[in-house]
Amino acid sequence: MAVYTHVSAEALHEFLKAYDMDEVLAFKGIAEGVENSNYFLQTNKGRFILTLYEKRVAEKDVPFFLALTAHLCARGFPCPKPIADKSGRVQSVLEGRPAALIQFLEGVSIHKASPEHCAQVGNVLARLHLASQGFSLTRANTQGMSTWRGLLQVCEKKIDTYPHDVRDELHAAMDGIEQNWREDLPGGIIHADLFPDNILFRGGELKGVIDFYFACNDSLAYDIAICMNAWCFTPEWNFAPDNARALLGGYQQARALQKDEIDALPLLCRGAAIRFALTRLHDLIYHVDGSLVTPKDPMEYLVKLRFHDGIKDIKGYGLEP
Amino acid sequence: MAVYTHVSAEALHEFLKAYDMDEVLAFKGIAEGVENSNYFLQTNKGRFILTLYEKRVAEKDVPFFLALTAHLCARGFPCPKPIADKSGRVQSVLEGRPAALIQFLEGVSIHKASPEHCAQVGNVLARLHLASQGFSLTRANTQGMSTWRGLLQVCEKKIDTYPHDVRDELHAAMDGIEQNWREDLPGGIIHADLFPDNILFRGGELKGVIDFYFACNDSLAYDIAICMNAWCFTPEWNFAPDNARALLGGYQQARALQKDEIDALPLLCRGAAIRFALTRLHDLIYHVDGSLVTPKDPMEYLVKLRFHDGIKDIKGYGLEP
After folding, report:
1. For the complex shown, is ipTM > 0.90?
2. What is the rounded CA–CA span in Å between residue B180 and residue B307?
3. pLDDT, tens digit, for every residue of B7-27?
């Protein structure tokens, strides 16, 4: 949750002139988005999210995020459309920060995912992978596999708050992941953070995908693995095979998986689990006092990593090969 | 800015049944309100603020705040109306916290106050003082004059981060305030925190007053003094006599001030200045790392205190007696 940069009513008024908007009906900082300052804005032209990009989002990446969502919207994909100003630009500056005005999407995040939710999540993920084909910009995965060992080593310096065998366990898991990782799977743009917080539902129907600030180029099936971890476990961290079946089924309605993608899923799920275990561990250990972001529990992803360690192939998930 | 308590979509759905609302179109935590968790909520019945009362708001005070704003709304005063559920209750429970659904008011806070703004602020303050007459509940001012010396002593324990003469200056100011304080001025319900953040404007027109969580019984003219400090100084902390003239003029259009209220204004302004200097100093010194509230600069109010120290009567403000 975050509003890092305060926007004065006067600066907002100036900013909106470029969009031919002059009447502000509502303007509230919203406690959403770890990386940016976000405001709910209602004007005479409708409802919007106003985003100011903060330090954690590299300024050079802002055009990538805005162009990607514009590309997806143009192909009918349900994500927030960047609004162009009178001169056609979607990126502006406000209070000294890169800023963008973005369409407001209705809907709310759900927290207990049902198979019906998961089928839609899988389907929208496949549609994201298809709709982003032909997108001309690329962005490396700054949280990709090659970064995890280094992250583990940074965490280790203070990892004595954890039992020693956790350290050994994480290194052993990284050994297996590095030895078996597949760089040859079908690739493209992935969302890379498609957690329940980033999907809006209305009346049980998926209305939109938000928060593309981890989107990058990587293996498409790795994005599925992230979703399996995020959507296919109960709140008690037990695997929910009905959710996984629905998620993969929904995905394959839009894009058929290749055999090597299916075979790689347990490995990719281990990778996705260790990625979030490590970034959460890092955020917990190096949490800046006074930070607006509440650290999440890395144990959740350690538990998921252990579960996937016991899975040899997709039948281990209770799924058909 | 704050969302202390997370509300799940499922708990929200249950909560809204009592209000005959079943469709959630938007639900966003908002970075507003130091004392509570606030959400922007849009349902099939309209737009609302959902407030969860956190520890800093004494649970026993919640009925006072809700009844006060309901009383004011019933008298046409522009403030957010608490929404009654099907059984007529305005106070409920959500995620284990006292909670209320409150009307959403359009408008935005302004940050550079003009005399035109101040005239409306003064007028709405007088209307608040009049409309709350006959309200049956009372609440002591927990930040009233009798608490300031104790607050100063608590701050003193760590006040060596400030120059020593500031300590002497604050004690001397408190001596003068205590010796001259007036308990016999016309009293009633005061807002006690009518800063620019708590007034919504639209197109230059005052649309509403929000955040009654410091409202209490005290001298009405003390509420004017709080507003003079909050609205009648430039961003560089210089006194703005045109703003003060407009504020007092706007006030007296609705409620004429007695001579003893006018005479007491410099004293009350000193009191209001030291109150906010001390609470800001306290928040800065005892700021909990990881707190979601950014401390404000106490120096601003020390500068205002010094200004008022040089004022003998209302002519010192450049105002007509």
Report:
1. no
2. 18
3. 888 899 999 999 999 889 999
Residues 6+ apart with CB under 8 A from B299: none
pLDDT at residue A2 greater than cutoff 60: no
Band of pLDDT at residue B160, cut at 50, 70 and 90 = low
Distances (CA, A) of B169 to A12, A14, B274: 40, 42, 11
Residue with tokens 């349900």: A78
Instruction: Tell me, yes or no, if B293 comes closer than 8 A to chain A by beta carbon.
Output: no
Angle at alpha carbon of residue A258, lines to A256 and A259, rounded to 5°: 130
For B277-305, write each residue's pLDDT tens digit.
999 988 888 765 545 556 788 889 999 99
Q: What is the mean pLDDT of residues A31-43?
A: 82
State pTM to two decimals: 0.81
pLDDT tens digits for A240-288?
999 999 999 999 999 999 999 999 999 999 999 999 999 998 888 876 5
Pick the residue from chain A with its C-alpha nearest to B41. Answer: A108
By CB neighbour count within 10 A (0-12 exposed, 13-18 middle, 19+ buried), where does A188 fall? Answer: middle
Token pair of B62 as six digits: 């919640």
In the numeric block, the tokens 């200097």 are attached to B277
Suggest the residue from A36, A108, A284 to mutate for an interface test with chain B (most B CBs closer than 10 A): A108
Cα distance between residue A321 and residue A319, in whole Å: 6
B32, A28: Cβ pair inside 8 Å?
A: yes
- Confidence band, pLDDT 50/70/90 cuts, at residue B3: low
A29 to chain B: nearest residue by CA? B31
Cβ contact (<8 Å) for A2 and B31?
Answer: yes
Q: One-letter amino acid identity for A165?
A: D
Q: Which residue has the tokens 């106070």?
A: B91
The answer to whether B12 contacts chain A (CB < 8 Å) is yes
Mutation site, A38, A292, A296, interface B, largest B CB count within 10 A = A292
Q: For residue B109, with 0-12 CB atoms within 10 Å meaning exposed, 13-18 middle and 19 or more buried, which class applies?
A: middle
Pairing of strands B36-43, B46-53: antiparallel
Interface of A with B in 64-103 (CB under 8 A): none
Tell if the CB–CB gap between B112 and A10 is shorter than 8 Å: yes
Q: Label residue B310 by pLDDT band (50, 70, 90).
A: very high
Residues of A in contact with B8 (CB under 8 A): 111-112
Rounded distance between C-alpha atoms, residue A299 and residue B1, angstroms: 29
Q: Which residue in chain B has the smallest CA separation from A22?
A: B203
Sign of CA dihedral A207, A212, A217, A218: negative
Rg of chain B on CA atoms, in Å: 20
Q: Mind giving me the DSSP string for B284-305?
A: HHTPPTT-SSPPP-THHHHHHH
- B8 token code pair: 């799940």
Q: Where are the alpha helices (DSSP H) in A132-218?
A: 148-156, 164-180
What are B101's strand-pairing partners? B50
Q: What is the mean pLDDT of chain B?
A: 91
**Whole-angstrom distance, CA of residue B245 vs CA of residue B264:** 16
**Are the Cβ atoms of A31 and B27 closer than 8 angstroms?**
no
